[in-house]
Design goal:
The strands form two sheets. Strands 4-3-5 form a three-stranded antiparallel beta sheet, covered by helices on one side. A hairpin with a 2-residue loop joins strand 1 and strand 2. The protein has three helices and five strands. Helix 1 packs antiparallel against helix 3. It is α+β, with helices and mostly antiparallel strands.
Amino acid sequence: MIFFSLRKGYATKMSFSLKFELKDFHSESLVHRFRNFGEAVYVELQEICSINIQEIDVATTSIDIREIKRKNIGEVTRRVKNLLNKHGFLESAILTRTKTA
């Protein structure tokens, strides 16, 4: 099933975005670890969604993953949760999923 959004008379496929935010910011070393996590997400998912490596390089508390196809949202979420756990952020990050057009 494909979902469409009508905007200005054009049919566009719906996609999703994920945002990861740190609950608490404690130290500069945490920022370094968070950027390492972001780079791992980039390497893992760059083929199936949109991730801006320049944004990751300057990230301090949040990372955005955009243009995730509906068929991939479950896989992307699972992979990111695995990486959050591997990098020690599973309990200290907030994951927000939104629909985009």
